[in-house]
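Hi support team,

I submitted a single chain yesterday and got back a structure, but I'm not sure I'm reading the token output correctly. Could someone confirm the output below corresponds to the sequence I sent? I've pasted both exactly as they appear in my results page.

Thanks,
R.
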Amino acid sequence: MLLFGCKQVSKESAVSEIAEESSFEKIIIIDPIDENVVLKYSDIYEDIQYVKLETRSDNLIGRIDKIITTDDKFIILDIAIARKVFIFDRSGKFLNIIGKNGEGPGEYDSPNDIAYDEYNDELLVWCHNKKTIMKFRLDGTFVKGIKIDWWASSIYVVGENLYLAYLNNYTQGRGKINDYNILIYDDDGNVVSRLLPYNKEKIVMSPPSGTIFSTFQQELLFAPYYSNMTFRIDLDSAKIQNKYYFDFGEHNIPRSLFDHSVTPKEFDKTVRGDSNYAFNITFIETSSHIVNLFVYKRRIYTCIHSKESGITRFASVFFNDIRYLHSGGMIYTCKDNLLIGCVEPKGFVELQSTVKEIKKSSDNIKEVMLKKMKTPSFLFGNELNDNFPKVINSSTITLSEKEI
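Hi R., thanks for writing in. Yes, this is the structure output for that exact sequence:
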């Protein structure tokens, strides 16, 4: 549990101005960025397990924006399509939906973010338009709403009945910009701590959705979007301390881009376009690995750094040579040393096509895959078209009867 006094105020400077890389505990080098590398799952994973989420007419998921895992449940957030929060048990059985769409008590127009409260075994749902943190039991029972004065990009639980709101100061009403980017609220909606001063003269981005707050070994970690740094938040002293620096070399976003002459819209267009810059969007730490997802030239790369060996591997394209059921999947969260992500149904539809080809010909699975690589749907561009077949040929691929 993290304990701190009321009304603490951080005097730390804004994220874009925090100390040079030499002050971080660890520097993880991601340079040069090879756009054409293809990694095997066996290069980084020991095993893969699949959980098929039960599909019913009343629980259709449009898009997975966030996954939270408890000891016995998966909590799935769909912000824009279904606009719901779904609860499944760890076997994939559908349990219930949290809240519902509407304007009444316990209702939201859209669940913009979620956070699990392990102290009370409750779920927090952030409703952006209502500026309200809504508390639910995991069976769907509405507990209460906590109204705050600001719009936020994300929320997080930092202690018993203590909730963090990361403000998006660019979306506040005129004259309502807060002097801080992070506010800590108690259960009655009172601000008990303020961190990360907001620099009105520079572009200090409040992030889109992403895993920017996490906890590892009771440390609260902060990995801002559009950044290559991860910080430790000390709530006792209301200070933000440097922890990890991801060095993209010449692809680091230059600090000059954070200058006041650049608008947020221009910044976003410059960094997210076909620029030569790389930046993190998700950070996860386990006892054995540091995992970050970063964007470079419109592609999302999964990067995994081993704490034991010091080896860092990353790629935007993977080949599943462990259990050949799909070719990729976005990682969202972790539970102990399990990384947890999702794969769309279309990843399995392609497998069905491959199995049919194998059954009606004398070709083995490698030969069928290599033939499919020649079709337009499998063209990656650049050297990936050459590297992917090489990885297939060097892999041991088998399909069990159960998988078939």
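A quick pointer for reading it: Residues 1-19 have pLDDT under 50 and may be disordered. Let us know if anything else looks off.

Best,
Support desk
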